[in-house]
Structures are given as structure tokens and as C-alpha cells.
Amino acid sequence: MRHFLLRIEPVIWLLFGQGLLIGTMLLTGWVLVVGIGVPLGLIDPAALSFDRAHALGSNIIGRLVLAALIVLPLWKGAHHLRHLSIDFRGAERDVVVAPILYGIATVASLLGVLAVARL
Amino acid sequence: MSESKKTFVITRFDPDKDEVPKTQEYEIPVHEDWKVLDAINFIKDEVDPTISHRWSCRMAVCGSCGMMVNGEPKLTCKTRLSDYGDRVIVEPLANFPVIRDLVSELDGFMEKFQAVKPWVIRAKEEAGAVSASNPPKSSKGTFVQSAAELAEFKQFSLCINCMLCYAACPVVANEPEFLGPAAIALGHRYNLDSRDQGLDERNEVFRGEGTVFSCSFANECSEVCPKNVDPAAAVNQAKFGAVIDWATSLVLPRPGASKEGGK
Prior knowledge:
Distance between the termini of chain A: 37 Å
Strand order of the largest sheet of chain B: 2-1-5-3-4
Radius of gyration of chain A: 17 Å
Helix content of chain B: 25-40%
CATH superfamily of the largest domain in chain B: Alpha-helical ferredoxin
Largest sheet of chain A: none
Distance between the termini of chain B: 65 Å
Structural class of chain A: mainly alpha
Number of helices of chain B: 11
Strand content of chain A: under 5%
Order of helices and strands of chain B: EEHEEEEEHHHHHHHHHH
Helix content of chain A: over 70%
CATH topology of chain A: 3 helical TM bundles of succinate and fumarate reductases
Number of domains of chain A: 1
Strand content of chain B: 5-15%
Oligomer: heterodimer
């Protein structure tokens, strides 16, 4: 398992790096607009009426952006939590912790992609 | 110049007598413009000559006087005493075996440096024996490097081997075999050098167990570095290099790719 984790590390680190970028920049803006701006009336709710939001999210570029917004931060979170666990004297338990976290990220990514595909 | 008194709690360890390190307190008069190292030197010269500590240049270039000051790795010749209260705790650098008092063991650290091949790797026929039949690469007999090419790696070449980054690194604390920030920054410095051709060899080193991908992005190495080398940036760039190396190895045959399969 240790050897396998080391072999896939470049791929996961790449997902982590992209997730870090998207999670801190795009996702923050997304939450500000969709989660805070529109509900509080700071942004005209008509801007995200169902028809407009659906049109935005269901074209190919919209789907790609939504999928990236969901999938990449998941891997960033899983990888960060794994290394946090190692830093707190968890090198021994890593062979258990890493597969659990990456497993959650894999399942959640698939569900996210499925949800975006069905929009 | 005003004088005040401060108490120094210094770690004492004599391998012939002690099982575990103990501490000893010294209350001494200090000048306000003293660095922490000045106080330790004063104690050694005037109070207790049995204290052992390393220091040399007193101007933050030799990298000898790294110690834990109030729990943080510091170059003691660069650390103002006025930044601390009446009680200053001085310990040997964390994450290293202690030889005596404030002196730590360097051997393992030096081995890690050698592992990253910190020299310009270049085909022998190009770099080596110059003769009539084998003229030097340039008219001056050296490999010419532009100012821009130097700027690529200069930051990573400013390391003074003070080991503060190893004392600060949570990965070094947990996995003593981890290559560590300074060694990775040093290897990366040669990877960025326009005269060097050892990228493949060093990427083999960087992709093994206990190397760049063991880093957990705490960034403490860059926080404590007294020369602003930014080893964390080197580690991340080395990771990116290893990722690119891995990705191209999927589509392009390259030296070392066959070795990878046999591991």
C-alpha cells in the first residue's frame, strides 16, 4: 500500500494543486455569489433565476466549470487532511487513513460528476 | 548603553554522565543591543566555561549557531535579545541527535545533501579533459551562463546549511529519513542550472520514498530560513518537475523509465 500510495502521489498532488487554486479563488467567488450575494439580495436574484442558472450550468463549458469546482477541492481536502494526519504523528496509520480519504474523494467526485452530467 | 538582567535556561547534556539532557539557569547582565549568541558567549567566557555551543562568523553567513530560542529555530547571531522577555530558553536544534549541550550531530544531514547530487552533472566529454581534439565548449573554456539564467536558481544557492529548516519541519520530526527542505532546495538549484544535465538522475532521487512527496506543505522551512532561500518553493517546484517527468514518461521513452518498472 505504501508503495502504491507513493506511485500515485504525482497524480494526486496535481489534483491537490489545482484544487488549492480553484478552492481558494474560484470556489470562494462562487460561494460569495451563490451562497451569500443572491440570498441576501446583494445581487439581483433574477440573475440566478432557474432558467438562467440552468442555461449557465448545462452547456459544455458550464458543466466543465461545475465539475472542476466540485471535484478538485475534494482532492485538495483529502490530500491536505492526509498530510495533516501524518504531521500529527500519523505516519503509521497513513496506510489506513490515505485509502479512506482518497476513497471518499473518489466516490464524492463520481457523484459530483454524475450530478453535473444529469443537469 | 543600558544594562538589564535576563535569565537563560540552557540545555546541558554530557554524554559521559547524563542519560537525558537537563537544563541549567544563568542570570547575567545583558546589553540591549546584544544578540542571543552574545549572551551565550558571555556565559561561556565569564560564568561557566563548561558550556559547549557552535558559532563562528557572528554575521549570519557561516550557519553554525542555529539553536532553539524559546522553542523556535533561530540563528542566534541574528536574533535580537531585546525581542525576548526576562527568561530565554536556549536548546539545541530540534530533530537532530545531541552531541553535547547545544551542539547537534550533523552526519545524517550531510548524507542527505550528497543524495541529491549537488554538483553540475554534464557529459564528461563536454565538461572534462580539454585537449586539441576536444576543444572547450566556449571560447573561454567555460560554460557561459547569462544573468537571466543565473537568476533562475540564485535564490536556492544562498543556503548556508544552518539546518533551521530541518528543526522546523514537521515531516523531519516524524520521518528522520525524509530528505528535507535544504537538501531538496540544493538539488533543485542544480536542476535549474543551465549548465546542468542531471535532471533525470535527480528526478529519480526526488521520486523515491521519503523525498519531495513526503512534504506536507507546512511551509515552516521558508518561515524560519534566515537567508530567505524559500525551500518550500523549491520543494513545490521539484514536485512539479517530478509530475511532469512522470507524465512524459507515460508517453515518451526516456532513460530511467525501464528502471521505474522494475522497482
